[in-house]
Amino acid sequence: MRFPNKKSVVVFLVVLPLTGMLIYHWNSNTITTINMIQGDDSLNMLLEKRIRSMDRGNDHIPYHIKDGMSKLLAVNGCVCEGDKPGIPFAHLLYRQVSASQLHASVQDSDQQKAKQYRNKEFRSFYKRTHTAADSLILSEANSPLQYPTQGVEVRPTMTILIPGLSLNQINKVDHYSVDLNATMGTFNTAALVDGVQVKGEGEMHISFMSRSLASLNRQLEFVTYTNTLFHPNTADVVQFKAGNFLATFTIKIRHPPMPKFYNPGPRKEYNVSTLVTIATKTFLRYDKLQDLINSIRQFYPTITIVIADDTKDPKPVTGPYIEHYIMPFGKGWFAGRNLAVSQVTTKYVLWVDDDFIFTSSTKLEKMVDILERTTLDLVGGAVREVTGYTATYRHIISTDAGDEEGDCLHIRTGFHHAIEGFSNCVVADAVINFFMARTEKIREVGFDPRLARVGHLAFYIDGLGSLHVGSCDDVIISHASKIKAMLPWGQSEIDKAYSKFRYPSTEETSMNEYDLYYLKNHFKCVTSD
User: Rounded to 5 degrees, what are φ and ψ at 96?
Assistant: First the structure.
């Protein structure tokens, strides 16, 4: 009888469990971002709420809920769920989703105060960011009224003609009449049409009446709206009525977005030194900072470098096209980012860590090209470690609507889609800590200075819905080796001091990233892979 050799047995014992784990993963349905325990009743509630104020003549007609739709349209609030425990060592083969319930790092006696403060801040935020233009308005069928449903806009205290107003009544009557009502402005007429009676010019309510439908519609072409109650960004709800028919539409009231232009330099090719400023934050590591500067000068000798420095006893950093700004001691990473970006005077800013190294693969021209030719606000590159591994740190961020306790935040590794015309480039929601961005856009989002040591993703969460983010894995910067600094016998006194501040103990951390999500962003839980 022949026995298998030891090598075959070892291979069998290794391959069989791995194969089983892969099959388990491929057939597993535990990874989810929605509430799996919601029943079909949740969709019934949503449908009933939707039709409550509408025509109930079709209530007798039965309906059947499609499989899977109940959980997609759940109305009982979101829930964060992670992967359930599986077979051992599953995490070695694929990313597992974890879930955390967020709460503030405060004493129990202060929890209620923190919650009240958080709710108050959220209500204030909601009032600032939601206007009547966000409301759902349904234009019901068979109405004889023609009116604009979207796209009417007036600048504060200014006047416009309201486009598209008309009455399309089929039945002939003795006279035709319409009314308009507003709450933040007045109506008037730019011209008068014979045979049309007008009442309420210069008021928030105006009416028109005529025996001729054609004359009435001609008069409606000259109706004006003037905003009288100033607000820099809001909307007025206008009611348009004819007999028993009532239509509602909004007029957006706002100043248009203010453009800010920069001198692009010669148009023959991208002048990176004119278009881009490099920004970084340093603390203690002047040797690594100098290596970064030397590598930049090798490829971009005239580009401006802005340095924010919160070292206790700062050393001078001088040289052509270098701006060195001293901060209070230990203010932190995000505070330094804000300071550095505030001093940028070019169209774009490139963010780098102080221990990065430029190489021949650090092609800033491609980053400029994609920002110039697309709607992206920010484009990240890739960071190559000393081991040769190259990381892009691409993430997809999404949220689920929750309840009074907050919403659900979901963070996943990956990207949305490739960018046509730009090889190796994709669209994501968060990228690695090496990126070029439109200066004004990055200032608009800002960096929360409460995150002093950690919190890279917090910037992208603050910018969700505002930042259009891309990533190109062929624009590569190198990372200085950390191996020596990580070994106890290889650490210098500077390395030890830096590590103490970079990786503080939990007791020394006043605000962590999860606390900020809870207190500031109104999230109650988070899932991530």
Answer: -105, 145
> What's the mean pLDDT in 72-80?
70
Give the model's pLDDT for residue 40.
44
Note whether residue 304 is domain-resident: yes
> What contacts 479, CB < 8 A, 6 or more positions away?
355, 356, 357, 383, 384, 385, 386
Distance from C-alpha of 144 to C-alpha of 486, rounded to nearest angstrom: 75
Under 8 Å between Cβ of 459 and 380: no
pLDDT digits (tens, 9 = 90+) for 300-339: 999 999 999 988 889 999 999 999 999 998 888 888 999 9
> How far is it, in rounded angstroms, from Cα 112 to Cα 124?
18
- Whole-prediction pTM: 0.79
In which residue are the tokens 């994609």 written? Answer: 370
SS3 letters across 225-238: EEECCCCCEEEEEE
Q: Cα–Cα distance between 213 and 304 in angstroms, integer? A: 67
Mean pLDDT of the 270-284 span: 91
Half-sphere exposure of 171 (CA within 13 A, CB side): 5
Selected residue with higher pLDDT from 25 and 210: 210
| Angstrom distance (rounded) from CA 296 to CA 369 | 19
The verdict on 250 and 306 lying in the same domain is no
Among residues 226, 254, 282, the one where a domain terminates is 254
